[in-house]
């Protein structure tokens, strides 16, 4: 006699999700390539368990039946759950308390049919995506990033992570990796969303990086174990990055960069889009400049600008950039006129200075006294001049 099936698989949300729900959603994830609004509608109407049963029997609309034709006859849900557990991953479902319901709500209002929410997500790591997404930024950009772009992505991500903003990206070469590493460098939260199964690492060169992310943050994917990455799957994955981030930041993008797909998804989902400018001579900044020029993205030049967009309303405001302080800052216009009239290589009597500045005797005396107090004027035997420049120690 076989052992009884546990009510809840280990690693799920505190024992609140029934095993049959996990199996149903795991089955649906494998049966139909995401995104599929017909499948989402079926689950919304009947619930995951009955939706899975209807799909097995073929009692679903023709469009969905065609999409599931190659896989619906084989139920690999149990094997997928076991393979994921062996890789340290768990299945996160909408029935979990930690499901990002609020970020994914935007899919319902999206004008494009390809912007459908995921049926479930495979998750690896201690982070809770619902909490992390509440204060987050998605950072994307070119794989063939320049040193400028890599430095910007790492610096912005580190600064934002230090301020409690979770950094989301796709773990690819270039900007993605720099963003993750920037957040990790300051022990900040970072989330990687993949286009392959939870038991696979892509790119393979980022095995160590993904292990570091999974140790403290979160690695997410909607593709079942064993799934290999593909060009279309990267594009599909991008909608999750766009939805989960409070805003999306494009650091570098070429004229035909795939990053522009994430930017388009973010716009369609109602997320604020930001872009970092670059040298006008750099082909890797053409996409960013076009996004700004066409008014699709706001221009940001500092991490503080990004924080103002994705942070707390009325709290995380970016102060105006502070220029270089000058000793004459804050002087009254007439006092400044007297300062400008002071000779640098000679000394003049007050009358000549007043005439040059166009200031009367009483105002001149007050101005010279203020300038002397500030160290901006020197008096020598009835004559005034600017202080002599002294060499440093």
UniProtKB/TrEMBL annotation:
Gene3D superfamilies: 3.40.50.450. Pfam families: DNA_processg_A. Residues 115-309 form the Smf/DprA SLOG domain. Belongs to the DprA/Smf family. This is DNA-processing protein DprA.
